[in-house]
Amino acid sequence: MKWIGQHIWDFVSRFRNTIILQPKDQTNTDDYAQLDVDPDGGITFATFDAAGTDANVRANIDGAFTLTTAAGSLNSTNINSEEVNIASSVSNKPLLNVTSTHTDTDKSAELKFIKDADNVADGENLGLISFYGDNDAGTPEVINYANVLAEAADMTDGQEAGKLTLNVAVYNGTSTPGIIIDGDTNVDEQVNVTIGSGEGSVTTIAGPLNIASTLVMDESGLVAVANQSSITGVGTITSGEWRGTAIASAYLDADTAHYSAQKQLTYYMFKDALDADKHYVGLQEADAESENSTNKNLPMLAPFAGKLLKVFLRATTDISTKTLTWTLETQAAGSNTGAAPSVVGTKAGAGCTNQTMTTYDFTTGVTGDNIIDAGDTIQLALESDSSIADTTYYITCLWEWNLS
After folding, report:
1. For residue 144, how far is the Cα from the chain centroid?
2. Are residues 398 and 314 in the same domain?
3. Of 128, 250, 279, 301, which one is least surrounded by beta carbons within 10 A?
4. What tens digit of pLDDT does each residue of 289-319 get?
């Protein structure tokens, strides 16, 4: 202790009891600071404000502030407070440095969040790092623009799994997951990752895409794996060359040219007054319709298996208000040739005008089917839901034959 006067003396002062500090003009003895020393040399500094919680501790330091504890893993600095604030007006400050000086290559400094609750449950929040800033409202509002959230996805003993979510504020300021890393898969060494939010989200990969060390797509977006097995659906392929095996007819639509099949057009004409009775079209000669299904001019022979794809019609009378029903009938091999045929499928639709062509598609909306077996004799019938006066009908049929 130094006494300033005519001379200066240096003393070492020792206090064996509690030290009480009060402002010299303080009249309320209930407001004070207290310094205690325990037998091991430890110091407890406490402040007391009898009327409230204004007994603050401030350190106004003209220089660096250093807090050093003895070395060792059991020594620590504890702060029991609801909030710790660090502020600075200097550019690129404040800066929080956590430095480790050891040389262990598999060890480092750590920023640890601990949720030590008595009732931990699945989905429990363990730690949150948030990033806030102003918006441009007239009176700026503080907005949470991004945050990183860690959770205990599964806290079951022996099955512990974590979840990490990277959230950002979207268009309306709502915090929305951009990346979710979820270890709650019930499978060891498996982690599920979700990227983006909503169908419009775009995920951009700057370089090549590798899956399990295999290059799948290069940086220009081209598929790099030669054998693409089990592809069940693709978009429009606008270029390239097919060099694989033949595509089966079953996987091609009715208008696609088939390698192992042949399409054939046949043409017919007859004049008659139609009604609700079947009129069979003569498939062997012109103007040979008949209401008798066993008429010799009606059937034609199918040497190969095939299908009736479409029937095209024009007429000399406007019959667009009528409903016409076409019937595909066959007489299967094994039955007596020339006997009455059996119905395979029917297709109904409005008639044509006397200036237009109408198409009846036997590949869709058919009652029954349009399939013809090899060796069948084929017949085609037409009827109307109401009477039609004498009219000339021009008919073209499109068939498909399997030549494989």
Report:
1. 26
2. yes
3. 250
4. 888 988 888 899 999 999 999 999 999 999 9
| Angstrom distance (rounded) from CA 264 to CA 259 | 14
Pairing of strands 377-384, 279-281: antiparallel
Q: Judging by beta carbons within 10 Å of its beta carbon (0-12, 13-18, 19+), is residue 141 exposed, middle or buried?
A: exposed
Number of domains in the chain: 3
**Band of residue 259 on the pLDDT scale cut at 50, 70, 90:** low
Going by C-beta distance under 8 Å and a sequence separation of 6 or more, which residues neighbour residue 133? Answer: 142, 143, 145
Buried-state track 291-314, b at ≥16 Cβ within 10 A, e below 16: eebebeebbeebeebbbbbbbbbb
Cα 39 off chain centre by:
66
CATH number of residue 311's parent domain: 2.60.120
Mean of pLDDT over the chain: 88
Same domain, 287 and 362: yes
Please state whether beta strands 142-154 and 124-134 pair in parallel, antiparallel, or not at all (unpaired): antiparallel
Q: In what order do the strands lie in the sheet with 19-21?
A: 19-21, 32-37, 43-48
Q: Say what the alpha-carbon torsion angle 231, 234, 238, 243 is, to the nearest 10 degrees.
A: 20
Is the Cβ–Cβ distance between 337 and 316 less than 8 Å?
no
Mean pLDDT over residues 222-229, rounded? 77
| 133 is a domain residue | yes
Task: Look at residue 373 in the predicted model and tell me its pLDDT.
Answer: 95
**pLDDT value at 212 more than 90:** no
**Domain that residue 395 falls in:** 261-402
Bridge partners (DSSP) listed for residue 127: 150
Q: From its phi and psi, is residue 36 left (phi > 0), alpha (psi between -120 and 50) or beta?
A: beta
Predicted TM-score of the model (pTM): 0.54
